[in-house]
Structures are given as C-alpha cells and as structure tokens.
Amino acid sequence: MTFPLEGGCTCRAVRYRMLTEPLIVHACHCRWCQRQTGTAFALNALIETERVEILAGEPECLVTPSPSGKGQKIHRCPTCRIAVWSNYAGGGDKVRFIRVGTLDNPDVLPPDVHIFTMSKQPWVVIPPGARSFHEYYKSEEVWSPASLERRAKLFPS
Ligand SMILES: [Zn+2]
Ligand SMILES: [Zn+2]
After folding, report:
1. Are 24 and 147 in contact, with CB atoms under 8 Å apart?
2. Which of 14, 15, 30, 123 has its CA 20 to 30 A from that of 60?
3. What is the tens place of the pLDDT at every residue in 95-111?
4. What DSSP designation does 103 have?
5. How far is ligand 1, taken at its centre, from the CA of residue 58, in Å?
6. Residue 50 Cα to ligand 1 middle (Å)
C-alpha cells in the first residue's frame, strides 16, 4: 500500500502526512470549486483530521463563502498562500478535504466519484464506467463499507 503519503505547499513551509487511505476522493465539478481552484474541477481526498499529521508549518485558516451559506474553511500556507486542505460545514473540523494536487505523488489518488457534473466544463470527459452524479450522492450508496464504518465512529448517532 502507498500510505502514508506526504505533501505540502509550494514553498515547503507547510508539510503534512496522510496516515491512511482517505474515506473517498471527490472530483467536484461545481462552479464554486472551479472558481476557487481556477481550473476545471477540484480533486479532494476526504480524511479524518486525526489521520493527518502536520510535519512543518501552521496552515492559516480563512473562511470563504460556500453554497450552503455556512462557509468553507480554507487552510493555506501563511507564506506562499497555497491551499492544502479545507473543512466544510458537513464534516466540520473532523474531516479534512486534502487538495490532492498538493501531495508529492498525487497520481495515487484518482477520483472515486465525480460530483456536480451538471456544471462540468464541456471538454472534460468522464472516463467510461466512472461513478458520476449530476449533483451529490448518498454516502450509503457510494462509500465503501470500511469508510462508512469510519464515518460512524467519527459521527456517532
Ligand atoms: Zn508555502
Ligand atoms: Zn465543488
């Protein structure tokens, strides 16, 4: 297995380690992600905050507007301002959305699911057989049993 994985910002002031595989990897084609990344989609690996170790630096947290109205907390290197992860209202501070492109080897985490393909840029072709949703999905139908179990531990009902 490829874990742990390390990553960080461009100036290397912030370095982190993902201790295990993520819960799931999203390619999000929503307009908000397009604007925030300046490109066609965001690639986020969702993982428990406690499974991410900060090796160097202290990411700075900035709250930006989000479609839910509850805001997205973007964590950036205080020096080069590259964003390394975000927290969304849904998972709160317990789940980090790691920006896959900040991993030293981002190739190992392709998307498990494409979401908000309703606003996908027309030139982006979803690979045949890939799971994709017009908007969002029900975790119970998409996440692996192991990931659902991890989520239940994180958010006991
Ligand atoms: Zn930096
Ligand atoms: Zn999005």
Report:
1. yes
2. 30
3. 999 999 999 999 999 99
4. B
5. 10
6. 22
